[in-house]
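Quick question: what would this complex look like in 3D?
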Amino acid sequence: DTGVSQDPRHKITKRGQNVTFRCDPISEHNRLYWYRQTLGQGPEFLTYFQNEAQLEKSRLLSDRFSAERPKGSFSTLEIQRTEQGDSAMYLCASSPSGTDTQYFGPGTRLTVL
Amino acid sequence: GENVEQHPSTLSVQEGDSAVIKCTYSDSASNYFPWYKQELGKRPQLIIDIRSNVGEKKDQRIAVTLNKTAKHFSLHITETQPEDSAVYFCALSGGYNKLIFGAGTRLAVHP
């Protein structure tokens, strides 16, 4: 499968724990986006990377959230001190330069108990 | 910030009928308008997109129209089939090409 992949697909954690998700974009896609989707809503933008540079962060991304893309390939999203309100589907998307089209991964569903 | 309103939130049609979903927006700087289909538990899949330099685009049973003056764009599905049942999201591009999504339309096609 040469599409966007995400790991894990599901994560259940207790409130206050830290979690980390990984996204592997389509090879040679230099743009990478993270979105959050809650039940019954459309995806909401969280952050954007062009290669290894994080160029934009949404106000939704509190200081408990951090994202990295150290070598301009895969990306990680970490949530510290999780809260029940963090429960959602976290989607990653990638896009090649010169096009607007974004390809989504299957998402990581986070449940905070 | 930019906002996209999508209507209706649910749509129920008989197989073979047409379905139309409409989205309105406020930021006239947007120039890319994709539509995604999301089946239960699956990733959003791009089904069609349109750029601001054209008014209409068609791909088999799916078409999208864009009215930049009125700031709305619509998805048209003809000859609907049960496998068209899903949630459909409109979106538009913001800064750095991030996508701003509507709230979605749950389409049910009844045999």
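Answer marked as accepted. Chain B touches chain A through 25 residues (CB under 8 Å).
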